[in-house]
Amino acid sequence: MTVLLERPRASIPVSRRHGRGFWLIAAVYLVALAFSTVPAPLYPIYQRVDGFSAFTVTVVFATYAVGVITSLVLAGHVSDWVGRRRILYAALGLEIAAGVLFLTWSALPGLIAARFLTGLGVGMLTATATAYLLELHKAHRPEADGTRFEIVSSAANLGGLGAGTLVAGALAQFVTSPLRTPYAVFLVLLALSVVAVAVAPETVDAPATRPAYRPQGVRIAGRDRTAVLVAAVSSFAAFAVFGLFTSLAPSFVAGALHQPSRLLAGLTAFLVFAAGATGQAVSGRLTPRTRFLGGLIAQATGLVVLTAGMQAASLTLFLAGGVIAGAGAGVLFKSAVGTIAAGAPAARRGESLAGLFLIAYAGLIGPVLGLGVAGLHVASTTSILWFTGVMLALLAGVAWLGWRRGR
Fold first, then answer.
1. What separation in angstroms does the CA of 131 have from each of 49, 89, 197, 340, 403?
2. pLDDT digits (tens, 9 = 90+) for 65-83
3. Is 210 contained in some domain?
4. The domain that contains 376 carries what CATH number?
5. What is the tally of structural domains in the chain?
6. Which of 64, 228, 364, 396 gives a 20 to 30 Å CA spacing to 106?
7. In terms of pTM, does the model score above 0.70?
8. d(CA 104, CA 209)
């Protein structure tokens, strides 16, 4: 994978084209990830209309995560040789198809199918857009460090996830068709995203001989295998927190905390993702070790405060814990992405980032499904207590791996 050295257009130098493309792809990344969380604040409405249980919500959410993982396995690495733009076109096409399904088929089978298509699109897009942004950044500012890339890519990822819940929650609160209007709005934004991709310059030269296709699997390049393991486990733990707030947290707020507001449901998830994006932005100047330790401590502390809020039925404590845990998870995931992006060779960067996202999205499935199953037998306050215990043990394992690597 090499950066294209195209002949500059008369009116737009190459560096300016790549600089403009950088911001266009960042916007596409944000819109696509925002669309993926639109259903989060709407789940309580689906539950009321169609009689969903909390476990059904976790199944629907897991279907999305399965779609992401399937796509990462089959296509997450293909942009390394077919080009970034082709994969983004396919990903946006899948999300547009999902949006049409959301609009026209709101029953449970339609919801499951639409979530699976959304997952397929997100799986194709995440690693591709991250690698694309890095290459556009380097082409535009070859002498600069990676700070701008790290901040913008993280903000587009987590900021998009949070923006989707906030916009959907606000629309659901104030419009007459809460299960349709949010999707209609995002269909327009997704169509504009296709245009943005068409304007951005490609950064990958097609190889003379295309490599034989093979599924991705979990292959992360890098000579420091302990660092790769720390990054992988950190991403799993971080996404477990994000999974909680894009699946069951709105139902917890409406049920256990007795706050049925749709806007509040969207705001709850938004605050967590906004905290994650903010944590990533302000931690840019920290040393890698300080950033790693700070993320661990913040996520662990936030989980404890969040659980205390559930036990005390305190919305304030619950939100405070979510914000602290979200900030820690964001910093921890930024540390993981930085480690893999820096350690992987250019020709395998897309493949390596796809492998990292594959592990991260596995963190969305396991813990959240566990919460859903537990919710069939125990109160939500008890299942959250178990979730926190498991996550604290996992974070302790990450800390031990980091300490071992430091030695």
1. 41, 15, 14, 11, 29
2. 889 888 878 887 788 888 8
3. no
4. 1.20.1250.20
5. 1
6. 364
7. yes
8. 43
